[in-house]
């Protein structure tokens, strides 16, 4: 079971507690979370189901490489962090 | 004054209520969040707020109790982009089929609870259930000319103006930056470019009259004379009095206005010859001319433009007023908000102006509740 944790900054807009789910890829674990919390999907993924431009996902401390298909592998007991990319703006 | 004023800013939606002879700021919603615009549906009084959360995307909220409570509703989303479908803008940036900004929102008056929504990167959407779901208007998105549209100040084209025709709610005109003006007479099944007669001075000679090259900043239609449209365009002001069969450009040499560049336009719903603009220095500067904030008004169909400055700052003022940030209330009151966070109101058709506030975040849009 992988643990998926969301940036605290999302909490202001949508409930997003850490979840423990089954899945072998980033896509699979995120889909498992979104199945129970569908409103959260649009805050993390864009219309095409790819990671939003200024979002980041880390698996066990490493940023994922496949932001389109989210095919990066997830192990049992992995920790998946969905974070905001640091980027400019005000 | 009887109509609440909704002010959408970079950091929240603020509401001013009528107070005495003017208005008073009363409350804020979504404080800290970026609002691209708000819309009040005259049919059921619903308030809609379009938010841009940056990292987290654009969202829509609706309030059925004048802002006391809000519900997040669906946001227009594009269908699956076909594999291999690659479109790049003129500087090579790929267009992704994803809503980047909600740039216009209007009641679709041909059905109860129906709405139109214009977006960047250029898709028009329709909802038939007060925003619970949205459908892309495919006839426009797949129109071959759509790929000729370009971004104005943004990376990709956007639909910022939606005029629902008072003669027939299935007829709507939309304006695109940059993609000219388009009209449907069958509630979105078919579309015609109606920018013929406009002129673009920022393209090569062969495209000067091209309908898709016209960077219309804002389009409005007169309710009482629905054959009259006004367009604040990137390089001038255009008016059509023949239902967009042709457009005439106001003569910059003779109107008397400090500039014909600007973003917003408002037209008197009872008098198509009367319209208001907020001029700026064009293109590379985009600030108020001569450090003075003024409004211009025509009352003769565009032959002349009066410069209205009473009550507005006359020195060291560099406010820019965006395309949705000038509004006219049903009772004739006017309001505009600026990038400097100033909001001014007028109850005498622009002859004089009062400061509502000098301290808001940059103003993106203002609208009066009907």
Q: What report would you give on this structure?
A:
The complex is a heterodimer of chains A (90) and B (370). With 90 residues, chain A is α+β, with helices and mostly antiparallel strands. Chain A has one domain: Roll (Ubiquitin-like (UB roll)), CATH 3.10.20. In chain A, 20% of the residues lie in helices and 23% in strands. Chain A is built from 2 helices and 5 strands, in the order ββααβββ. Chain A has a 5-stranded mixed β-sheet with strand order 2-1-5-3-4, with helices on one face. In chain A, helix 1 crosses helix 2. The radius of gyration of chain A is 12 Å and the shape is globular. Chain B has a 4-stranded antiparallel β-sheet with strand order 3-2-1-28, with no helix packed on it. Chain B has a 4-stranded antiparallel β-sheet with strand order 4-5-6-7, with no helix packed on it. With 370 residues, chain B is mostly beta strands. The mean pLDDT of chain B is 96. Helices cover 1% and strands 39% of the residues of chain B. The chains are: A alpha+beta (90), B mainly beta (370). Chains A and B meet through helix 2 of A and loops of B.
């Amino acid at each position: 079971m992988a643990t998926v944790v969301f940036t605290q900054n999302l909490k202001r807009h949508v409930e997003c507690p850490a979840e423990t789910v089954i899945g072998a890829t980033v896509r699979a674990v995120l889909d498992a979370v979104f199945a129970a919390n569908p409103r959260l999907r649009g805050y993390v993924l864009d219309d095409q189901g790819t990671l939003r431009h200024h979002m980041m996902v880390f698996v066990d401390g490493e940023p994922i490489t496949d932001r389109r298909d989210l095919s990066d592998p997830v192990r049992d007991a992995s920790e998946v962090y969905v974070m905001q990319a640091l980027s400019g703006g005000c | 004054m009887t109509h609440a004023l909704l002010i959408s800013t970079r950091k929240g939606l603020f509401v001013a209520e009528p107070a005495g002879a003017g208005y008073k700021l009363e409350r804020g919603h979504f404080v800290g969040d970026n609002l691209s615009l708000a819309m009040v549906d005259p049919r059921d009084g619903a308030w809609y707020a379009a938010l841009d959360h940056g990292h987290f995307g654009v969202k829509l909220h609706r309030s059925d109790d004048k802002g006391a409570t809000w519900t997040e509703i669906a946001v227009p989303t594009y269908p699956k982009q076909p594999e291999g479908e690659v479109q790049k803008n003129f500087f090579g940036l790929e267009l992704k089929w994803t809503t980047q900004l909600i740039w216009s929102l209007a009641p679709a008056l041909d059905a109860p609870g129906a709405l139109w929504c214009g977006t960047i990167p250029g898709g028009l959407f329709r909802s038939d259930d007060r925003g619970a779901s949205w459908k892309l208007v495919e006839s426009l998105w797949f129109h071959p000319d759509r790929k000729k549209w370009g971004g104005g100040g943004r990376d990709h084209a956007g639909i910022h103006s939606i005029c629902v025709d008072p003669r027939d709610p299935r007829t709507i005109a939309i304006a695109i930056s940059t993609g000219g003006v388009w009209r449907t007479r069958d509630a979105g099944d078919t579309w015609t470019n109606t920018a013929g007669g406009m002129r673009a001075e920022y393209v090569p000679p062969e495209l000067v009259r091209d309908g898709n090259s016209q960077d219309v900043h804002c389009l409005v239609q007169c309710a009482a004379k629905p054959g009259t449209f006004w367009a604040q365009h990137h390089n001038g002001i255009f008016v059509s009095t023949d239902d967009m069969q042709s457009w005439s450009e106001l003569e910059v040499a003779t109107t008397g206005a400090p500039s014909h560049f600007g973003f917003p336009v408002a037209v008197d719903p009872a008098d198509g010859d009367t319209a208001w603009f907020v001029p700026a220095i064009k293109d590379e500067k985009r600030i108020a001319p001569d450090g003075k904030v003024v409004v211009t008004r025509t009352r003769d169909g565009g032959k002349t433009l009066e410069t209205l400055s009473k009550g507005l700052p006359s020195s060291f003022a560099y406010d820019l007023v965006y395309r949705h940030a000038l509004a006219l209330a049903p009772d004739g009151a006017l309001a505009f908000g600026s990038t400097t966070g100033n909001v001014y109101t007028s109850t005498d058709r622009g002859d004089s102006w009062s400061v509502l506030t000098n301290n808001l975040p940059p103003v993106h849009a203002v609208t009066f509740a009907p």
